[in-house]
Amino acid sequence: MILVELTKLFRRRRTWVAVGLLNLLPTIVAVLLAVTGIAPRPGQGPAFLAAVQANGSLFAIAALAVVLPLFLPVAVAVVAGESVAGEAQSGTLRYLLVRPVGRTRLLVAKLVAASAFVLVSVLTVVLVGFVVGRLALGNAPIGQAMISVSGTVLTPGQVAWRTVLAIGFVTFSMLGVAAMALFLSTVTDSPQTASLGAMALLIGSSLLLTVDAARPLQPYVPTRYWLSFVDLYREPVLLSSIDRGVGLQAIYVVVLLGAAWANFATKDVTS
Amino acid sequence: MAGSDPVVATRALVKHFGPVKAVDGIDLTVDVGEIYGFLGANGSGKTTTVRLLLGLVLATSGEIELFGRPMPRSGGEVLHRVGSLVEGPAAYGHLSGATNLALLDASARMPAGPVGSSRSGRAARRARVRDAMDLVGLGAVGRRKVSAYSLGMRQRLGIAAALLRQPELLVLDEPTNGLDPQGIREVRQLLVELNHGGTTILLSSHLLAEVEQLCTRIGLLDRGRLVLQESVDTLRAPTGRTLVVTPDADAAHALLDGRVATRDGDRLLVETTDAAALNARLVAAGIRVVELGPERRTLEEVVAERTSERQAGEVAR
After folding, report:
1. A98 with B90: Cβ contact below 8 A
2. In chain A, which residue's Cα lies nearest the Cα of B75?
3. Domain range for residue B58?
4. Which of A85, A87, A245, A262 sees the fewest Cβ atoms within 10 Å?
5. ipTM score of the complex?
6. Single pTM value for the model
7. Does B20 touch chain A (CB under 8 A)?
8. Are both B32 and B111 inside the same structural domain?
9. Cβ contact (<8 Å) for B57 and A268?
């Protein structure tokens, strides 16, 4: 069933359009930087964007920071929100269930497919970011050391494995959104409603992070630790936010998936 | 198959949607080898009952058994023996018909049992898909996407999906919807062939003529209640009266005085089962006979008699 879901997802043109658009924004940013040569001052703008003029390879990480706050979660919300509600809307849900595909199995397969989409998206962003950065921006030798966020020097090897960790962290961070969209997707028969609902959660969460009066809530909103992946490029790696981010996401994922399962397993499928 | 267990059995099946009683205490039985016609007006609860049988909708109370196993608890074990078409076909428009069927085939595990074509593997799957497409006359459509299919082709694809894996029970909701007369004939013929091969069929429809031609037994739903469950032969058995059509209606009426049940213009209904003797008597009396034979009720009459009149302005629930 998991294989079937992956086939359905990746044989859809829309999936690849989403991945393409996701890569378009960082590419535009890279081209603009290359043409104008105006980089944000260190400490301003998206993380790492200040450093890419000197070392284009770092644009892989900068690209991630560019899409992370909005583009990536929106794409995830669309794909995950579509998962069950889309089948309900097209009428294929009933034929899957009577095949029979167990409801829990279907939900798990949908979650795996959504996670696969997140991973593929993040990987392509990093990869395309790297290539575009090398081509358009500072063409420093690949072996050149990088200055960490803390000001010390990181070897290319260190940067590489930290980037792998960052990919993992970002992917996991997106699972909260995916779980929210999946839950809403079992509640409504309209994929748009499910996607927009998940986006509303994101926007609400981001908004609370900017309001000082909401400070007591801030450690618990889902987007709080997303950009903490930057901490992976400190020396030594600053793990406190990363840990908390992973823990918080895990709670969101477990609670929302539990809700999705509880709702879907006993739901009247009338679509 | 477990001897004489009915294929489908429900006891006091009830389903409420909020305040609406969609299904209100249904005892339905479909036996092995039957073509069961499930009749009822729009909104009478047909589709809800079908969804209950397949475990898509969960009953408020009552029991459901498929192949003698409780539903929806045993769905995982018995549903692979069922093929269904519920409320119209559905497929992924961006994929071809064959790919749709292949994905559907791959989505559920193959039963380990000795069921017909339980071979797994790609080649076997491709063969199954091709067989199903051929059966419904879609063998030649090639790789065309379903979004480019006509209504009739989609309906055929839906039937092909139901036939995948040679089910023992077919649950078909309006299977001839959207088909042209030729297509309707083909589907009817296909169903008869499948039934001869041992497939039990539950056919839900509001086309009485279709049901009358195909089905061996019917169940009639009215406002969530099963008001009639009877074999078609019994329903259509002679009523014990003989219909006479004659231009000499007055003379015939006088001759058969006391035995004429009703008279409507030149049509007389006579209380007798012996049509031949009646004919001889009329002819002997010089009365011209246009038409004469035992009265049989049509399904339409039976249905009209058993179904309560819809209130003026009452919308299907």
Report:
1. no
2. A100
3. 8-234
4. A262
5. 0.83
6. 0.85
7. no
8. yes
9. yes
